[in-house]
Amino acid sequence: MATFERIFFSVMDKLQALYDKWKALQPLNERKQFLLSQRFTVEYNYNSNHIEGNTLTYGQTELLLLFGKVSGEGKLKDFVDMKASLASVKMLEDEMKARTALTQNFIRQLHHVLLREDYTTHRQLPDGSQTSFTIHAGRYKTRPNSV
Question: Considering the entire predicted model, what is its pTM?
Answer without folding.
Answer: 0.67
